Amino acid sequence: MKKCKGCGVVLQYEDENKIGYVKNDSFDYCQRCFRLTHYGEIKYLKKNIKDNIELIEYYKMVQDALYVIVFDIFDALIIDKDNLLDYFLDKKALILINKIDLLPKNITEEKIETIFENILKKYEHYSNLEFVLTYKGDYTFNKLFFEILKESGYKKAVFVGRANAGKSTIINKLTRNQDLTTSIYPGTTYDFNEINFEDYKFIDSAGLIDEESILTYLDNEKIKKVLPLKTIKAQVFQFYERQSYFVEGLIRIDTLSNSNGSIVFMLNNNIEVHRCKYENGDNYFNKHQNEFDLKVLPWKINTYKIDDYQTFIIKGLGLIKIRGNLKVNIYLNDKIKIYKNEVDL
Ligand SMILES: Nc1nc2c(ncn2[C@@H]2O[C@H](COP(=O)(O)OP(=O)(O)OP(=O)(O)O)[C@@H](O)[C@H]2O)c(=O)[nH]1
Ligand SMILES: [Mg+2]
Asked: How far, in Å, from the CA of 309 to the mean position of ligand 1?
């Protein structure tokens, strides 16, 4: 049974329209990986959310390995509210907080480290868990990783985490090649994929599909526009009266205060936040709702009371920080969860 070197799918030679197709057994990469790598085309992306159960069963089974749990920066900010870590509390695990380069440049690495030391305090008594910040292009991480792996005594490392966190990219970096297929689309790696490197074995895995992420409800073209890819330039607004803010048809936020405050959006740089007076918010929506390129509708209104400041994390979209003493209404599709915390980035 030959597997694709890029995504781990079992290769098949019969049906061009099914996953894993190759013309004959001389090929190492499936047609999907080939087309994705060379033309940026993607088919058969999302696995069924039901497949998450299969992945979690596998996580529970593996014994003799170091678990490398990869989180992207935004998921990592709510690591303590998410149940993903719970599966690894009895394992030797390394938590990689990846894509820290997405955060605006003025946020220093020291600040990020302090934030995570605080967030991860909850897991302090698990001496089997360790955490490291990583980002694209950071080869200093390689040395540290091999030290940790050596120290663990394991010859095997299993890379797990949500789709798109950067698992395959990190393995490519560690093995200093581009054998694994990576892409901006969540759901790129299809199945377990073993890579031998020196006397170690790395196992790449399909990412867990995140039902709570806005990306799960957008097609590929739109995913490209929404997912933050490069260092974010924060969009900052001061307010002195009631206002409404629209991220197209993805989210609306009303800041309901006549005293001053501010709201900061950390999103994909191509997304422009539209602001108007609260009194004109409904009109704006009614006029533009059919023109929005990006939308996940209908919306449900969630009301929050803020004292001083509050950070909201919307999975797949980014982060919104609001400062002031006020009530806010967040309009969002109710399949997408709003996480809040006190992180002051
Ligand atoms: N900005 C930034 N992008 C990154 C970083 N690491 C990975 N990426 C990008 O994130 C996207 C997803 O990376 P992958 O390695 O395919 O992620 P994955 O976890 O293997 O995803 P699945 O196979 O879908 O589970 C790609 O576009 C990578 O280039 C990082 O540190 N910073
Ligand atoms: Mg992958």
From this structure: 31
